[in-house]
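Data's thin. Show one?
=====
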Amino acid sequence: MRHDFRSRTPCILATGGAGYIGSHVAVELLNDNYRVVILDNFENADRGVAARIPQIAAGDVTLIEGDVRDRRVVEEVLQNYRVDAVIHLAGKKAVGESVADPLLYFFDNLFGAISLFQAMQATGVSNLVFSSSATVYGYPEAMPIDETAPTGVTNPYGRTKLMIEEMIDDLVIAWPELHAISLRYFNPVGAHASGLIGESPQGVPNNLFPYVAQTAAGQRARVQVFGGDYDTPDGTGVRDFIHVVDLAKGHCRAIERLLHRSDDEEDRHQRFNLGTGRGYSVLEVISAFSHACGIAIPYDIVARRPGDAAASLANPGRAHRLLGWQATRDLQQMCRDHWAFQVAHAVERSAVTHGMFHTVSPAATGKRQDFRPGLPI
């Protein structure tokens, strides 16, 4: 079903929209003048994020606390808010955890996607952006990686991402109205320049940037660098790090392509890499972060982790050509913005610990909270 957007502002549902990537996506959608509805169960999200989004971007944003696996709730949201497109970000994302508990990942990620797709089909919402991952490539044979590279997942998390992409392949055949874009992220890092939203993992971080930041802040003793004997310039692993704001803007360009596609669009499930095309080593990241925060960050080089590749970087040319998107923020800005959030978040945690803030009771599942300038929370 095609929509006429001339008479109203399009509404975008972001599942998992209170999470690290989702909150930045919500901000950029608001900056592009979309109406935004966030559906999140807060299993892996900071409740305070939803209140901070309107401090960054003005616009119409609604938070609904609920689970994407609850098809009834999803259908109600799609109908009640006249949703025009969905960005599906909800799901679990830790590779190590997926290896230890694959059934958890199959249940959460696969069942969540099935529930969403059923609700979309039932309500006639036929525009979808899926948050996929470069993990679907496994151990690529050539660099940089483009979208035609063979897939070869090496862990249950990556398997769920690839399986959902394959579900979408089948759905666009069975459901002629459906148009979808899968965005294969590389390594999202950084935070919004305001310092209000960023990555705040619980427990030991799974990703390099928060681990380095916590070490700089004195929360951890030293950074463990896994492997110093790779075939790379300094012997440490090389990754394509992308600023989370650039990543969020990529979602907006994908939504724009879906909502304003031509009637003769033949490829109804398109895939795009989102990365910078440039790799940075672990030691380069530590050095840049030390420069950004003015603190020497101690590290130890230890044995390789099983399954880690020497290098991984994207060929983002297709996204540049077809979406008009390109990452613009460099490693220094990634580090500066991440550190600004780390400092601000540490101050907030201290204030909560000492009773300077009070907590707000969450809404009941399926109930909405409107966060607009001037409205109490």
Notes: Residues 350-377 have pLDDT under 50 and may be disordered. The chain has eleven helices and 15 strands. The longest strand covers residues 127-133. The CA atoms of residues 30 and 194 lie 15 Å apart.
